[in-house]
Design brief:
By secondary structure, this protein is an alpha/beta fold. The chain contains eight helices and twelve strands. Helix 6 packs across helix 8. The longest helix has 19 residues.
Length: 238
């Protein structure tokens, strides 16, 4: 997995939105909050920029509706080669866009219109997860066929490497540290997503679904992630 932390420098954000006025406002706001922002205005330019200079960015903020290449297509293309965190901007109330974005590998989403404070909070939550693991704070964790290394940000299933987004990685780490135990959904949201679980928010369920698909490609039986009704999730190892 790629590392994106640039030490001793403001976190660098690639902002991708065809609303030039919004981009200018967010550039100014994020700059006052300690971020460095470079804005582009379509998905194709964002993909090209990340292919050429991806190591210069720590996180991407990407709108869905854009010319040339929309956010979904850009995210799909990006996930072929990069695990850089991506926060999608979606239309308020459009659950389909949110779910599709998460299924394609987005780490989080924020519906428009939004308060810039909420954007900075979401960005910092994602970056905290990523930077904590990149600093190598813990040894590898094993659970059945799974071996996860938080320091190197790698996962192997039956010896095969599996690429995860930063959010998927954070969720799986919590489940592996509590393998065989039910992890409360609220606790999992606070620890892995960095926010409280709210009614009708299906993002955690979508990330779990993504993990199940990725693990299932390599696993030959257990471990698996079980849903425990009205309680949470359980990682079984046998």
């Amino acid at each position: 997995m790629n590392a994106h932390t640039i030490h001793d420098q403001p976190p660098r954000v690639l902002l991708t939105d065809d609303d030039h006025e919004l981009c200018k406002m967010l550039e100014e706001y994020l700059a006052t909050d300690g971020f460095s922002v470079h804005a582009v205005h379509d998905g194709a330019t964002a993909v090209a920029e990340l292919k050429s200079h991806g190591d210069q960015y720590e996180i991407v903020v990407m709108d869905i509706s854009m010319p040339r290449m929309d956010g979904f297509e850009a995210l799909r293309e990006l996930r072929r080669t990069s695990s850089i965190p991506v926060l999608m901007l979606t239309a308020r109330g459009d659950d389909t866009d949110r779910i599709v974005g998460l299924e394609l590998g987005a780490d989080d989403y924020l519906p428009k219109p939004f308060n810039p404070r909420e954007l900075t909070a979401r960005l910092r939550a994602v970056l905290r997860r990523t930077q904590f693991h990149e600093a190598g704070h813990s040894d590898s964790i094993s659970a059945g066929e799974l071996v996860l290394d938080p320091g190197k940000r790698t996962l192997a299933v039956c010896g095969n490497p599996v690429e995860l987004t930063s959010t998927e990685f954070a969720i799986l780490e919590v489940l592996m540290r509590h393998a065989g135990e039910v992890v409360d959904k609220g606790q999992l949201s606070r620890v892995a997503l960095g926010r409280r679980l709210t009614p009708f928010d299906r993002s955690l369920d979508t990330h779990i679904g993504n993990l199940r698909r990725k693990l299932g490609r390599h696993a030959h039986g257990p471990p698996s992630i079980r849903t425990v009704r009205a309680r949470g999730y359980l990682l079984t190892t046998g």
